[in-house]
Amino acid sequence: MLAIIGGSGLSRLSTLDIVRREVFRTPYGEPSGPIVFGRLCEGPVMFLARHGFGHTIPPHMVNYRANLWALREAGASGVLSVASVGGIRADLVPGSLVVPHQILDYTWGRLHTFFDRNDEAVHHIDFTHPYDEALRRRILACAERAGEPMRDGAVYAATQGPRLETAAEIDRLERDGADVVGMTGMPEAALAREIQLPYAAINVVANYGAGRGDSAGGIAFESIEDVLHDAMARVRKVLEHICA
Ligand code: HPA
Which residue's CA lies nearest to atom 10 of ligand 1? Predict the structure, then answer.
């Protein structure tokens, strides 16, 4: 059963035909909220709001370990993350939808691994290709079917937040090879890999990165809300095809 983690702008999946909600407890603490089980296009899916139902948990305070653990306990066979980002690459203007293929991690101080016990053999995961290619393909095919094509491939930079970046930081991210910037993609992707859950993401470009486009003079928060409202409606439309 596919699990969907919804980020900013998607704390509820209104198209989900809800069957039940369940609160999970994990050895790593409490997930962001109950897991909602339901049906989407006739197929079973589960949904978790990354920032909590009322959008109260900031990116650096999300219990990523508990979220991934709970989804696996609930029977998830893969995880599809929906996350809003700032656009850096010129074609990734606000409203764009993109399925990233690589990650740069700038986060710090987050509980980022399940392998932190010192009474077990040291464990390293392969993370060369951080996203599951089959799930990426499935998302792109659904988008095609829904008539909402998405860009295939972007380098996602995960920053610590919760503040947005400086213009110089966005310039540095671009020099590093980043195409989009968000605050929640790590350690989420790595934790999924650690427990062998195929993981892929849809990134929704909410705004130009700091110093770019209409963010040149500062980020316009008012327009972000409108952009996300419209773009998340398109994401929901794509997700309607995810079980086919
Ligand atoms: N920076 C980091 N995270 C974000 C942004 C941004 O500009 N927009 C949405 N999430």
Answer: 85
Q: Is the ipTM of this complex over 0.90?
A: yes
Rounded-to-integer distance, Cα 92 and Cα 107, Å? 22
Contact 151, 89 (CB under 8 A): no
CB 209 less than 6 A from any atom of ligand 1: yes
Segments forming the whole domain that contains residue 175: 2-243
Ligand 1 atom with the smallest distance to the CA of 215 is 7
| pLDDT tens per residue across span 80-91 | 999 999 999 999
Q: Are strands 78-87 and 180-182 parallel, antiparallel or unpaired?
A: antiparallel
Domain count across the chain: 1
Instruction: State pTM to two decimals.
Output: 0.96
DSSP string of 147-178? T---EE--EEEE---SS---HHHHHHHHHHT-
Q: Is 130 in the pocket of ligand 1 (CB under 6 A)?
A: no
12 vs 26: CA distance, rounded Å: 23
pLDDT tens digit sequence for 8-59: 888 888 888 888 999 999 999 999 999 999 999 889 999 999 999 888 999 9
Strand, coil or helix: what is 199? strand
Checking phi first, is residue 177 left (phi over 0); if not, alpha (psi -120 to 50) or beta?
left
Question: Which of the listed residues 156, 159, 164, 222 should we mutate to test ligand 1's pocket, taking the one with most ligand atoms within 8 A of CB?
Answer: 164
Q: What is the CATH number of the domain that holds 36?
A: 3.40.50.1580
> Cβ(210)–Cβ(164) under 8 Å?
yes
